[in-house]
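From the pipeline queue, job 12 of 40. The input is one protein chain; the requested action is below.

Action: predict structure.
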Amino acid sequence: MTIGRSSMTRRGALTAGIAAVGLAACSDDTGTIGSGDEPEEEPTSAASVTITPADGAADATAASEIAWTVENGAFTEFKLTDAAGDAVEGDMHPDGTTWVPAAPLEWEGTYTASVTAEDEAGIPVTVESTFTTIASPGNRVSIENYLPGQDSTVGQAAVLAFRFVDYEIPEDLRQSVERRLFVSSEPAQEGSWHWITGRALEYRPKEYWQPNT
């Protein structure tokens, strides 16, 4: 069979029409050709986190504790890194309200605190705070342990006594000082601080020290 020119023209026009319909089906208003499926947006966590020291703070001390609050969610993870990105060792304060570095931070050091929380749906959010510590102060205050002496053997009612050298702690700062004085024993035993004067304070166990502590 011989196919005439007019038949080929109509068939060609039909093919072009089908192609045009196909393009229209996978094009958007901008002329971009795609599958027609919109990309899914990442779900946003309802949880919010506030960190202290705040991001950009330049007045933190080497004895800074890191605190945070979480709203509409629950805390899951914390980490502190130095300027080189190395992790800083530490642990939660015994009262569970703040994170305390295992050793004083460096003076004029830059650190980044990172807190992760999750909302009720399990969607996480991570907030960071980068802060800088102040320069080393010139007026240092020394503290000495004067009772009992190093490697002493004492009775079960013994106290641990400390004294600030040539400085009296104002009453409104004494609670803050207590927060940064830690006593550990083996076996672990509960105790508390008592101020004799603004320069001297004692630590006593709640009960008598257990033998061979």
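Job complete. Residues 143-205 form a domain with the Immunoglobulin-like fold (CATH 2.60.40.3710).
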